[in-house]
Amino acid sequence: MGKEGVQHMTSRIENPLFMRFVLPEQRELYLQMKEDEKLETLPVIEQDELESFHYLIRDSARDDYAITVSWWNPIKGELGSICSMWGAVKWIDQNGRRIKLVSDEDCQWIDLVAITDVKG
Known about the structure:
Strand content: 35-45%
Distance between the termini: 54 Å
Radius of gyration: 21 Å
Largest sheet: 6 strands, antiparallel
Mean pLDDT: 85
Shape: elongated
Low-confidence stretches: none
Number of strands: 6
Structural class: alpha+beta
Number of helices: 3
């Protein structure tokens, strides 16, 4: 068996959905497990990074220019995914501790504690 044959068999073994008879429940469970592997916990952000994020956010709101904001979105308990959006900060809600990010196509309220990255 050549190198391609071994590689082909390996891919069959790693992917249980390759088998001929798979129940829909088994397939759904396998796909859900693969999705769960992509989830991550909320990253810890250092204080100096937070201050830099807040400066860029205030500056975007004051001068009306676009920034890219990434934030952690909870999906399953302590696990979630990182979302990202480009736009200008149109409102800073001090009481709710969130910002309103607006682009040409979308508008999103983002909690300040969930922000993981801000790029100018």
